[in-house]
Design goal:
Blueprint: H1 7-10, H2 14-25, E1 34-36, H3 39-46, H4 53-60, E2 64-67, E3 72-75, H5 86-96, H6 102-116, E4 130-132, E5 138-140, H7 151-167, H8 173-185, H9 190-200, H10 206-219
Antiparallel strand pairs: 1-3, 2-3, 4-5
Helix pairs in contact: 2-4, 7-8, 9-10
InterPro entries: DnaB/C_C, DnaD-like_sf
Region (Disordered): 220-261
Biased composition (Basic and acidic residues): 242-261
Length: 261
């Protein structure tokens, strides 16, 4: 294989290879790889016949998704090929804010989190979103694993993931699943409070945060635990109680004379 060419690219006809490269590199492409562009513009800039483009797009599936009714193109592995720094992911979220299609945005967020464990800090402005299907019908999606995505839940997961990356470390596939469980099982804002409590105790472990959340779920939000969280030693500014020494019983008052024998 030529350098940078995957088996998928090698099997493509020449025109499809050119279109694939163009969709990555044209001036209309944004940081998310999801952007609006019409067939007329593509044909003008690539010199490909406009009538051939629908068939070429079909050859690029599943690497590229085309929304013909919205003049929208999504290069699905675009973000994976870029830097995954927090600054770049924020830029991705800002570019998504310019897309007037919540369904396509939901697909992009879910795909990158599930396939690449990349969490994008994009907040939804609606409680639910619809994903347009290839048949033209709208599928309403939820966060219960049956194809439904709820905006609020996805937004909470994105926020949790960003907090984890900024304060604890890189999100592995296993950590991504645990964060997803936290977002679905605990009220909004609990993770941030538990993270702050853990950091206040000098602990930066997800297991420790999970133990705080589980206790709050049983005993009530922000219920203090006797002896400190997780049995940790007191942090700075907290003095341990002095251990009292056992004293022998007082048999005489200090200053009295010894009894005469």
């Amino acid at each position: 294989l030529a350098s940078g060419q995957t088996p998928f690219i090698v099997k493509l006809p020449f025109e499809a290879k050119g279109l694939y490269a163009y969709l990555f590199t044209n001036d209309h492409c944004n940081q998310a790889g999801l952007y609006e562009i019409g067939l007329e513009t593509i044909a003008s800039e690539t010199k490909l016949p406009e009538s051939s483009l629908p068939e070429l797009f079909s050859l690029l599936e599943p690497k590229v998704k085309w929304y013909p009714d919205y003049n929208l193109v999504w290069v699905k592995n675009f973000i994976k090929r870029q830097s995954k720094s927090p600054k770049f992911l924020i830029a991705v979220a800002k570019s998504l804010a310019t897309i007037n299609n919540n369904g396509a945005i939901a697909e992009l967020l879910e795909y990158n989190l599930r396939r690449y464990s990349i969490s994008i800090p994009y907040p939804y402005t609606t409680s639910t979103v619809s994903i347009p299907s290839s048949a033209g019908a709208d599928l309403v999606c939820s966060d219960k694993g049956d194809g439904v995505v709820k905006g609020k839940g996805e937004s909470e997961l994105a926020g949790i993931s960003q907090l984890y990356e900024e304060n604890i470390g890189q999100i592995t596939p296993i950590v991504a699943e645990r964060l997803k469980d936290i977002a679905s099982h605990y009220p909004e804002g609990w993770f941030k409070e538990a993270l702050g409590k853990a950091m206040g105790a000098g602990v930066r472990r997800l297991a420790y945060i999970e133990s705080i959340l589980e206790r709050w779920k049983v005993e009530g939000f922000k219920t203090p635990k006797k002896g400190g969280e997780g049995g940790q030693r007191p942090g700075k500014g907290v003095r341990p109680k002095p251990t009292q020494e056992r004293r022998r019983p007082i048999t005489r008052i200090p200053g009295d004379k010894e009894p005469e024998g």
